[in-house]
Design a protein that fits this description.
By secondary structure, this protein is of the alpha+beta class. It has one domain. The protein has two helices and four strands, in the order ααββββ. A four-stranded antiparallel sheet has the order 1-4-2-3. Strand 2 and strand 3 form a beta hairpin. It starts with a helix and ends in a 7-residue tail after the last strand.
């Protein structure tokens, strides 16, 4: 059975923070869903994949990115704290531009 993005977000939050409900878990869930939606758009047939392997290049330190941990298929928004520490994520891409209204 294929899980919905919301179910995947709930599993991710439970695995990361445990069984609690607070602002941190809500923010983590929203971050997961935002990352999932951005990745889904970037992997559409109209656009190239866009994922960059950390083996090829690291993102700038402390600049928000969309990251993916390939073995677990976790996707979230985050940043690289320091380039001298091996990141948890395996792939990354720049965040899409915010909507203009």
């Amino acid at each position: 059975m294929t899980k919905t993005p919301e179910e995947l977000a709930d599993e991710y939050v439970q695995a990361w923070w445990g069984p609690r409900e607070d602002n941190m878990t809500l923010a983590t869930r929203q971050s997961f869903l935002a990352g999932y939606q951005a990745a889904k758009k970037s992997n559409s047939p109209e656009k190239p994949d866009g994922w960059i392997s950390v083996k090829d290049r690291l993102p700038e330190e402390r600049k928000h990115i969309l990251w993916c941990h390939e073995p677990t298929q976790e996707i979230a928004v985050g940043y690289l704290l320091r380039a001298d520490i091996k990141p948890y994520f395996t792939h990354w891409m720049p965040l899409p531009k915010p909507p203009e209204e």
